[in-house]
Design a protein that fits this description.
- The complex is a heterodimer of chains A (305) and B (558).
- Chain A is 75% helix and 0% strand.
- Chain A is mainly α.
- Chain B is globular, with a radius of gyration of 25 Å.
- The two termini of chain B are 40 Å apart.
- In chain B, α15 packs antiparallel against α16.
- By secondary structure, chain B is α+β, with helices and mostly antiparallel strands.
- The chains are: A mainly alpha (305), B alpha+beta (558).
- The interface between A and B is large, with 76 and 73 residues.
Chain lengths: 305, 558
Amino acid sequence: MTRLALRALEALFTLWLLATLCFVLLRAAPGGPFDAEKAAPPEVQAALDAAYHLDRPLVVQYGLWLGDVVRGDLGPSFQYPDYTVAQLILEGLPVSAVNGGLALLLALGLGVPLGVLAALHEGRWLDRGLMLGAGMGLAVPKFVVAPLLVLVFAVTLQWLPAGGWDAGWRSAVLPVVALALPNLAYAARLARASLVDVLGEDYIRAARGRGLSPARVLFAHALRPGLLPVAAWLAPALISVITGSAVVEQVFGLPGMGRYFVQGALNRDYTLVLGVVLVVGALIVLVNLGVDALRARLDPRLREG
Amino acid sequence: MTSPLIPLLLAAAGAFACASPGAARAAAATGPAADVPAPPAADAGTLRRGNGPEPSTLDAHRCPEVACQNILRDLYEGLVAEDAAGAIVPGMAEAWTRSDDGLAWTFRLREGLAWSDGRPLDAPQWVASLRRALSPATAGPFASQFEAIAGARAVLRGEAPPEALGVEAPDARTVVIRLERPAPLLALLTLPTAFPVDLAGVAAHGAQHTRPGRLASNGAYRLAAWQPQSHLELERNPAFHAPPPIARVRFVVTEDAAAELLRYQAGGLDITETLPPQPLARLRARFGDQLRVAPYLGAFWLGFNLERPPFRGGAHGTPEAGRALREALSLAVDRDILVRHVTGFGEQAAYGVVPPGASGHAPARLPWADAPRAEREARARALYAAAGYAADAPLEIELRYNTSTPHRRMALAVASMWREVLGVRVRLRNEEWKVFVHHRGQRAITQVFRGGWIADLDDARGILLPFAGDTALNWTGFRDPAFDALLDEAAAATDPAAARAALHAAEARLLDAHAVLPLYFYASKHLVSPRVLGWRDHPLDRHPSRWLRLAHAAEPAR
């Protein structure tokens, strides 16, 4: 119980540090939310500054903002005054979650079996072909893959929309694939490498020696230890599909949360950037906790201590 | 990359590994239009329009950029409206009269006007809406354009209550507007600032009155759905006096021009907001009639900071040397090469500041605009020497622009012309948008910088106004009492010919001082699907959906 409380405190401290750091960095950047091609007259500028407390000392602004956050209020958006930051995040988060979740499922569901297949054919042409493909999947960046997918499946074949989030499931196909590809490749390589190691272990050789069928050896003895590294990789993978979605969301014009990182910073939308940073930071903390628990289930050695 | 950008990027990346930022793009303008009265419901279906970035707000009084203006023009109607080509037509008002001195305007509203939710809309509501638009608390970005209305300046500065505005509703169907000085009032009334905002909705929901189901508007369409960063959906407003042919309009957020083009090609859009920079000939060959390029009331120029060396005084520190240097740099730039090979989008070479399409304006031009290139270059070298520079003592300057590929290409081309003709050493410096805008407005560290102006109104005086007085818009720091006086004279003139002469003289003075180096006049560019009928070119690139129709072919254009 004390451990749990300690971890929670640690998480809160991390989030506070993150938010404070971001606040300072954002404010250190020159230019402000109301700098525009056509500057507003001084009276208008003053009214805007007053409405957003920008006329107060920075420390006071920080205090006001932090006070609001503690009360659960992320404040209004500077760039989109019709919405609060919380409303924008609530609109964007489901899109990012659906995309990231499906991409990760695809990566695991396809990557792990392919990795297992390669491991079982270690050194043979199937293994080499699969790993070559995985290498390419890792090497080609998303901002190249995504437009290529659009060119082939949207512009040339016209099977799927080239972007947007207004065509039901068809809108999700290309972004999910683009987001999944590098993770899929990584999952396959990881599963293969680990399984190759496990298959060389003495107890596997012993199991084979006892005359167990290859399938039994694989499923009953090799797979669980072989997939431990994949489980450990889940946390960084989840985080990468959440943060990596910024690129994919930009290319496909998806209304997800990842876009607010880039846009919010470019627009100097202080509250929006800070809100997104806090929410994603909290997600990362939660994901790490969850994955730790999952690893403990898979690997009894981790349950002690 | 400049060092001030680094903290910003760090902030954006935050705690996470690195999310590499995709290309973001500041966007410019648009939509469709035609003056063909089509039977309502003749062709149903949804018009899908690329609309650039996410609109920042749907509060008409607070909307600062083109993206929200495009949508608001579909949602609302002012006292007067524009047809597809930009001519003024009746809007809420069916008729209007003007006093002989041009200062008092009386508008007679249509009978039975209503909001999209059925509540009646009358003259006092329009008056109350304009008062809100001009009150300082609203912080309306275009409110100061209405300074010519009696009492407006005091109201805008917060020195008088909004009720002091010279706008009245003597009865439910009459609006009277009094001006302090002549002004293009009808054109002003087409700005969203003059659209009637439902104050009951504002009172009930504050800034969030703009949501579907809450936003009551009075235009051809009403708001049906809004998914931020994705799209907004509009449907016919049953209370509007002239039901539009197209039943539904979807404004799609298209942050990136290249991605927008792909979506158009994939059949997901009927109209694009703009086009990525590509040679016009290639686009023409590929898209034929779907490509719509038209002159646009905007000018692209380079500004000189007149408050700092070297442009204040050249090498000698005298005003004459500063002017000679600026003229030399202007002479050394071959605009024809720029518009043909660098922009290539149908832009026109510029030798003035006010675009040629500005109505009622007699454009001033640089005197040597038509001189042969060799002669211009010889003159440039002579002036360069007169300003105190030579091959062994060349001018070294910094050319500053905001980060974007077209601006970089333009800066490179200009810098190489300066180097070739005069031997000037140019350091190119690109800055992230907000940093650039901030520096430009301060006039503290800039030398030569990317400037330009896209007109909000077809009004030559408004285009010249930023060069008058000490405002944050006067990026060059140009000070000329005679110029300011000419603008005042044009504003006060009741005789159009006198106003035209004053504005011509003002522009000539600005050009003669070489405060700016005009490069080219903008062109608007769109792709318009063959299934969209009624599109007309518009000098301010406004294209309300109500003037468009859809061809019966159900299949979206490829």
